[in-house]
Amino acid sequence: MSGTHGRTDWAEDDDDLTLDLPQTQIIKNKDGTETIISYKIRDDGKRVKTTQRIKRTVIKRTVNPRVAERKTWSKFGAEKGKPVGPQSDTTSVGENIVFSPRPGWKASTEDKSEVEKKKANLKDAKIKCRICSGDHWTTKCPFKDTMAPEGEAGAAELADDVPEVAGALGGGGSSYVPPHLRNRGAGTGEKMGGKYERDDLATLRVTNVSEFAEENDLRDMFSRFGHVTRVFLAKDRDTGRAKGFAFVSFADRTDAAKACEKMDGYGFGHLILRVEFAKKAT
Amino acid sequence: MRPVLLSGHERALTQVKYNPDGDIIFSVSKDHVVCAWYSGNGERLGTYHGHVGALWSVDVDPTSTLLATGGADNTMRLWEVKTGKLLKTWEFATSIKRVEFSPDGRLLLGVTEKRSGHLGTIVVYEIDPEKGEDQSDEQYLRILCEESKATVAGFSYLAKYIIAGHEDGSVTQYDAKTGEEYKNVQVHEPDMMVTDLQWAPDRTYFITASKDKTAKLVSAFDLEILKSYSTDTPLNSAAITPVKDYVILGGGQAAMDVTTTSARQGKFEARFYHKIFMEEIGRVRGHFGPLNYVAVHPKGEGYCSGGEDGYVRVHHFDKAYFDFKYEVEREQANL
């Protein structure tokens, strides 16, 4: 600090320090380029040596004399006294924009590349059966009717068993039953949502739904199998478009099972639906 | 195409304009200040201080010596371009929505807002470029807009007509000497405000933009609708490009609705349409608010847009822009 000089203006410190720095050197190279070596002090107090190698090209442009004259005007107003050239506080350069006009331009063509990328990703992805892990779609699996999908083996049966197991408090292998599973059959749990519990047993989770789908489309498709009590299609709050999944509740579980079997792998829109029983949100 | 971003304003831009040689851009915004910029590198030449309200409009005379502005402080002002000196102030009862010089720079037009007790008017003053500060206070012409207030207005070729766009979506042709109304045509949907009116280089036809999501190319002589460009968003501005037969449309969701939608839904892009085929040929994005004004370089080298986001974006067209041709145009060129 230069406080020893009796100065109080801290802003002048910088000037002091720059005096210690070597002068900026400009070296003319043989190939017509210039090397500029400049020194400065960074904000953290470290000295930085910058070496730039530049080539000067003079581009001559013929302009209207009026334009040339205006270029020499001195700045005024808020810009008064500022040096020639764009100031960084008011002028900056944006990112490059590719603009190539073409006939029949449509808003969708802009996003085409992204769609294509996704398609390519899909192509690379291996097809794997969820039942036998074979090289085919689950719907085409020869064991479709005899085996349950991997990882969710007997999910349906399990769901049926749960109330009995939970009801027998203290029975079975483990003596502890978490509170939310106790007395499940009686339906007097302290679950959020109160006594009105949705019957998830007959609810199907439908995924890979086209984003242009409407609830009514789904209702029409699924009501073929029985009475549909509820259709919920998740939508984007901003765009109002479907998010790609939905829940369909049936009045009867057997209808739901039938629908699940038939509609899994059904082509809707440009996508193949995946239908499975909804899992309980525990 | 690398746009140059000008961030000299603190509030939404309302109008941007090139001078006739295209080397200077003037911009006005709601922050009371007028800025002048070199269009080539985006360097700010200076600012013009004096207005005490939001500015709505700016125009420069053909010799780039005088600058006119109008704003919400109920004044229309005349400035010296070179020094930023205020030369003359005309005061009105209501705000000034639009100012425009005649093609020879001898007349200055102003559109006044309609407010309780005051009808919207179009006023014209005589300007003497030699006199500087000593401009006439006397109105050369005053046109009362009794049916629907004028929102935009301008002089046709040879300052023969004054063409005005109205709040009700119609366009009127007045005699520029007597103020007599010749013709009124409902160019846009009823009650859809005409938001902009810009001229073709020879001022024989013009383009209007409207809140009804369309822009129309209209002949100045008989107000015949020559072409129509329809979009999916309310338009704030439309411009005709010289050299190439395109029009540039700017708009986007109304400023007051912007906060309720995400940017990708806002449609804040400059849209390029082919002037003759009326087909969209491309868009330029960049603003994150609606485009309030688009102005084209008088020699067709580029364009700039002023947005609600407070930025002016100056674009210099690259080769693809000039090379683009329709099949029929190419065939025609090869014949």
From TrEMBL, chain A:
SMART domains for the chain: RRM (SM00360)
Superkingdom of origin: Eukaryota
The entry's keywords: Cytoplasm, Initiation factor, Protein biosynthesis, RNA-binding
Coarse class of the protein's main subcellular location: cytoplasm
Span list, region Disordered: 77-112, 170-194
Start and end residues of each RRM domain: 202-280
GO biological process: formation of cytoplasmic translation initiation complex; translation reinitiation; translational termination
Cellular compartment(s): Cytoplasm
SUPFAM superfamilies noted in UniProt: RNA-binding domain, RBD (SSF54928)
InterPro entries: eIF3_g (IPR017334), eIF3g_N (IPR024675), eIF3G_RRM (IPR034240), Nucleotide-bd_a/b_plait_sf (IPR012677), RBD_domain_sf (IPR035979), RRM_dom (IPR000504)
Task performed by this protein: RNA-binding component of the eukaryotic translation initiation factor 3 (eIF-3) complex, which is involved in protein synthesis of a specialized repertoire of mRNAs and, together with other initiation factors, stimulates binding of mRNA and methionyl-tRNAi to the 40S ribosome. The eIF-3 complex specifically targets and initiates translation of a subset of mRNAs involved in cell proliferation. This subunit can bind 18S rRNA.
Family named by the database record: Belongs to the eIF-3 subunit G family.
Protein name, UniProt field: Eukaryotic translation initiation factor 3 subunit G
The species this protein was found in: Coniosporium apollinis (strain CBS 100218) (Rock-inhabiting black yeast)
Phylogenetic lineage: Eukaryota, Fungi, Dikarya, Ascomycota, Pezizomycotina
TrEMBL record, chain B:
Subcellular location: Cytoplasm
Function of the molecule: Component of the eukaryotic translation initiation factor 3 (eIF-3) complex, which is involved in protein synthesis of a specialized repertoire of mRNAs and, together with other initiation factors, stimulates binding of mRNA and methionyl-tRNAi to the 40S ribosome. The eIF-3 complex specifically targets and initiates translation of a subset of mRNAs involved in cell proliferation.
SMART domains associated with the record: WD40
A biological process from GO: formation of cytoplasmic translation initiation complex
WD repeat placement: 6-47, 48-89
InterPro entries referenced in this protein's UniProt entry, alphabetically: eIF3i, WD40/YVTN_repeat-like_dom_sf, WD40_repeat_CS, WD40_repeat_dom_sf, WD40_rpt
TM regions (residue ranges): none
Primary localization: cytoplasm
Protein name: Eukaryotic translation initiation factor 3 subunit I
Assigned protein family: Belongs to the eIF-3 subunit I family.
